[in-house]
Write a structure and sequence with these properties.
With 228 residues, the chain is of the alpha/beta class. It is built from six helices and 13 strands. The strands form four sheets. A seven-stranded mixed beta sheet has the order 5-4-1-6-11-8-12, sandwiched between helices. A hairpin with a 2-residue loop joins strand 2 and strand 3.
């Protein structure tokens, strides 16, 4: 029997430098796309996937995010410094009870299949990590090349035409032997790739990276909201 991870880490601590000048006075997760903040788009997906616990990390203008989430059933973990994805997850790890959790970035918009449910449906308990990906030709807001290659049996290697979409399931014990405070989860992925243990699946819906101001109308058009 497979146990579907039902806890989520939303990464929302970054400076959003590519989003300047919009992020001069506003953290990127609170930028509006299609009438809702980027963070709310991520939380909508979490709620639709019946996630039992959601942790949102913050740093840059973190008080604004904390105030935005006030009264809602989310845990806000403020970081004293930018810790990157791996360090941020390590810092918030004490909030989670499961052996494996979902993570997602807060700068994407999705249309179609719920990305978290897609990961849950594909997950195998003996896996270490599962990344949600799409071919570079099937995404919005990002140019080729991709990040990875995915083999016929679903194993990921570096370089290729497949793009990581910012959502994954990862086993928390992979962080046990990393003696760094500030580090990227790429360190974990590279170790898994070396041993043929990093898995990936293709997302069936539409995805847009909203990493810069020019991609906001791209995302809204993808959502069918041109002219919003």
């Amino acid at each position: 029997m497979r146990n579907k991870p039902s806890e989520l880490m939303v990464f929302a601590a970054g400076f959003g430098t590519r989003m300047q000048p919009l992020t001069n006075n506003l953290p990127k997760p609170l930028i509006s796309v299609g009438g809702r903040t980027l963070l709310d788009h991520s939380l909508d997906i979490a709620n639709a996937a019946n996630i039992e616990k959601t942790v949102v990390n913050t740093h840059y203008m973190g008080d604004q995010i904390k105030n935005h989430l006030f009264g809602q059933p989310y845990i806000v973990e403020n970081e004293p410094e930018i810790l990157e994805t791996g360090g941020g997850l390590q810092n918030a790890r004490h909030h989670f009870s499961g052996s494996s959790i979902l993570t997602c970035n807060s700068d994407s918009v999705w249309v179609g299949e719920n990305p978290l449910r897609a990961l849950q449906a594909a997950w195998q308990n003996d896996w270490d990590a599962l990344l949600l990906c799409a071919h570079a030709s099937n995404i919005n807001g990002r140019d080729a090349p991709g990040d990875f290659n995915i083999s016929d049996n679903g194993l990921i290697s570096r370089s290729g035409d497949w793009v990581y979409l910012g959502a994954q399931i990862i086993r928390l014990s992979l962080l046990d032997n990393i003696n760094q405070t500030n580090f990227s989860l790429n360190i974990v992925w590279d170790k898994l790739i070396l041993h043929g243990k990093l898995h990936g699946i293709e997302y069936s819906g539409k995805w847009c990276d909203v990493g810069n101001p020019g991609n906001i109308p791209v995302a809204e058009e993808m959502m069918g909201l041109s002219g919003v």
